[in-house]
Automatic annotation (TrEMBL):
This is Solute carrier organic anion transporter family member. Belongs to the organo anion transporter (TC 2.A.60) family. Pfam families: Kazal_2, OATP. It is a multi-pass membrane protein. It is found in: Cell membrane. One of its GO terms (biological process) is monoatomic ion transport. One of its GO terms (cellular component) is basolateral plasma membrane. The chain crosses the membrane at residues 66-86, 106-127, 134-155, 206-231, 243-263, 294-315, 375-398, 404-434, 446-467, 567-587, 608-625, 654-677. SUPFAM superfamilies: Kazal-type serine protease inhibitors (SSF100895), MFS general substrate transporter (SSF103473). It comes from the Eukaryota. The lineage of its organism: Eukaryota, Metazoa, Chordata, Cephalochordata, Leptocardii. Its main location: membrane. PANTHER family: ORGANIC ANION TRANSPORTER, SOLUTE CARRIER ORGANIC ANION TRANSPORTER FAMILY MEMBER 4A1.
Length: 702
């Protein structure tokens, strides 16, 4: 027996052949985890909870169905505020914060701008992190954004309507609303000081607060439809993944409808509710000076968003059983593998990273060129982008346009629009999905169907040519030749419309020459500028004669037939439904117009193009057009605020002209996509393979 036979073989105890022997005072080796230990460690990572708090009773939420519920609820909340509340309160924000329509249009567009800029980084970072916790974080940001959007209400102080007649109104305030003879003919009673000018401009500066709030809201919306869908797809079976996404979109579609219905009810409440009801100030929802409660819904949605974020933070990276759905998923690295990585040469790693970046850039350029060679894909994307430019602009100002065209209060216009347009979209999407399934994978037929539906739904824009005729108006900016109220020293910024017995609407009791008011009946008397018969207009000026007459508080009623409003909203319903018929076919066509390996990239580029060309400039273009239809601006000390009175005929013509022009451009691109389409060999091969699979499946069933 050799003297060395009793010594341990240190070569067998080394980690590898170049390893040094370990001393007896240290562990000779670190054993690998057994399969049971690794499985137990996995089970800990697959439990629902927060930090170390993962009790058994919480595991009832650790399913894909609960994940679908919370993700869908987040989408419904986000769409309620973005596509329901904000379009419904646009006109209210303009009057409250003295903004033009182009500025309010920028508020709407800023959401898409932030989403476009941040989404590439968001999707890249979120793809390498815990998707559940990422969704919880952006939902928390959504809650913060909602509170920030409502914050200007608390920062601006109490709203005081011009010419309000509350019991606590001072005599000096009432004097400015009535006609009082002045020794200086035509002089204005408006006192312009530095403080007054700064106060006027400070309100419009809240535009930037709303834009920052849109940044937080956009992070939730952008992540939800990218990271959220990917997160669900990773944790459910492939054959039900599409069903989960469809259910999610169905839940999300409820949001805008709820938003329009709720904002219609909230705007019927006074802006200072519940502290003040508005009626004590002599204001009603039909008063042009009425500011509805635009802010109350945002803190409620923000609170709900924060509450929904809590369970989203609790979901694990992978739901239980999800590891069995993906056979190609990489195994957890062992400690030996980690040791090998830490000992890798750093220079080789850096060189490898550089090579991967270079390869990624080359692959990106190649993918872009491949997409550019698909002319039908490019043309179809351009056509839909111009359609989105039109629809996003009309959607942003839809309640306001309805209010201007037909003289209905904003509370009713938001409610009517939500109950007509959004259900039309939902019904159209469901029916369109069935039609797309019937058409199949024939891209030529899909493009033809898209063009037909696009053309038919576009005919509905003719409804914007309808409007209710405005009453004759005697406003300072409308009738510069009218000199009747020059001696009353009326302030140019005074806006408190009254309707004279002669059927003419005046900018204020002062501009009508009224000197007295019955607070019980809200009837003005001794109005020197109102005659017992309609005012007669000669070639140079408006002239009056006869006995002075009376005026009632509020704007004059508009001449409007009973069928116009129902016809208008019925047409909007049909437009939304017919337009949504083509939506599933459009998505199917996009997927068929690009090679199979580039479909995700093609959808991403299509979404970027639609945002850049369509949804970002759309609201700003329509806002600028509406500013050009303004007949009376809010002014103070030489500064211009919101538009007080619109020319309804011009608004209808501008909206119709923009929509028609953009529709023609969009239809032209879609027609070209149909004409130049040539089947792709790879796609056709895939189509025939799918057909063979179907036949084989049918044969198996038999």
């Amino acid at each position: 027996m050799s003297m060395f036979s009793s010594l341990p073989d240190l070569r067998q105890l080394a980690h590898h052949q170049n390893g040094r022997p370990l001393l007896d005072t240290t562990p000779r080796y670190e054993p690998f985890n057994t399969t049971a230990q690794i499985q137990k460690e996995k089970e800990k990572n697959f439990r629902f909870g927060w930090f170390g708090f993962k009790p058994d009773f919480l595991q009832v939420f650790n399913t894909s169905r609960w994940l679908l519920f919370f993700v869908g609820l987040t989408g419904a909340l986000e769409c309620t505020s973005t596509y329901g509340f904000i379009p419904g309160i646009i006109s209210t924000l303009e009057r409250r914060f003295e903004m033009s329509s182009s500025k309010s249009g920028f508020i709407v567009s800023s959401y898409q701008i932030f989403a476009l800029v941040t989404m590439p980084f968001v999707t890249h970072i979120a793809g390498k992190t815990h998707k559940g916790k990422w969704l919880g974080a952006v939902t928390l940001l959504y809650g913060v954004g909602c509170f920030l959007f409502a914050s200007p209400h608390f920062l601006t102080g109490r709203y005081e309507a011009p010419g309000s007649y509350a019991t606590n109104v001072t005599s000096s305030q009432q004097t400015n609303t009535m006609c009082h003879q002045s020794s200086n003919n035509g002089s204005s009673t408006e006192q312009c000081t530095t403080e007054t000018t700064e106060s006027f401009s400070a309100l419009s500066n809240y535009l930037y607060v709303f834009v920052v709030a849109q940044f937080f809201l956009s992070q939730c919306g952008g992540s939800l439809f990218t990271v959220g869908i990917a997160y669900m797809d990773e944790n459910v079976k492939k054959k039900v993944s599409g069903l989960y996404v469809a259910i999610m979109f169905t839940i999300v579609c409820i949001g805008p409808t709820i938003g329009y219905v709720l904002i219609g009810q909230l705007l019927s409440l006074y802006v200072e509710w519940p502290i003040e009801d508005g009626y004590s100030a002599g204001l009603t929802p039909w008063d042009p000076r009425w500011i509805g409660n635009w802010w109350f819904g945002f803190p409620v949605l923000g609170t709900l968003g924060i509450l929904v974020a809590i369970p989203l933070f609790g979901f694990p990276r992978k739901l239980p059983g999800s590891e069995e759905l993906h056979d190609d998923e990489a195994q957890l690295p062992t400690k030996a593998a980690e040791s090998d990585v830490t000992k890798a040469d750093e220079e080789a790693q850096i060189q490898s990273i550089i090579e991967r970046i270079r390869g990624a850039l080359e692959d990106l350029l190649k993918s872009l060129l491949d997409l550019a060679r698909s002319y039908s894909y490019v043309l179809l994307t351009l056509g839909v982008s111009f359609d989105n430019m039109s629809s996003s602009g009309m959607f942003a100002f839809a309640p306001k346009v309805c209010q201007i065209l037909f003289g209905i209060p904003v509370t009713s216009s938001a409610l009517y629009f939500g109950l007509s347009m959004i259900p039309g979209f939902a019904i159209g999407s469901l029916v369109g999905g069935w039609i797309s399934k019937k058409i199949g994978v024939d891209c030529k037929k899909l493009l033809r169907f898209i063009l037909i539906m696009y053309t038919i739904s576009g005919m509905g824009i003719c409804v914007y040519l309808m409007y209710c005729k405005d009453p004759p108006k005697a406003y300072g900016q409308l009738n510069n030749n009218m000199t009747c109220a020059d001696s009353c020293a009326c302030a140019d910024n005074l806006y408190n419309p009254v309707c004279g017995e002669n059927g003419m609407e005046y900018q204020s009791p002062c501009h009508a020459g009224c000197t007295a008011l019955n607070h019980t009946t809200m009837v003005y008397s001794n109005c020197s500028c109102i005659t017992s018969s309609r005012m007669q207009q000669n070639s140079t000026a408006y002239v009056t004669s006869g006995v002075t007459s009376l005026a009632t508080h509020g704007a004059c009623a508009r001449d409007c037939e009973a069928y116009r409003v129902p016809l208008f909203f019925s047409t909007l319903f049909l437009m939304g439904m017919l337009g949504a018929f083509a939506a599933p076919s459009y998505m199917a066509a996009i997927l068929r117009l690009v090679p199979p390996k580039q479909r995700s990239f093609g959808l991403g580029m299509q979404r970027c193009m639609v945002r850049i060309i369509g949804t970002i400039p759309g609201p700003m273009i329509y806002g600028y057009a509406m500013d050009n239809a303004c007949a009376q601006w809010q002014t103070s000390c030489g500064q211009r605020g919101a538009c007080l009175v619109y020319d309804s005929r011009k608004v209808g013509l501008f909206v119709f002209g923009l929509a028609l022009g953009l529709r023609i451009v969009g239809a032209t691109f879609i027609s070209l996509a149909y004409l130049v389409y040539k089947p792709n060999a790879a796609i056709e091969e895939e189509k025939y393979d799918n057909a063979d699979d179907v036949k084989l499946t049918n044969g198996d069933v038999k």
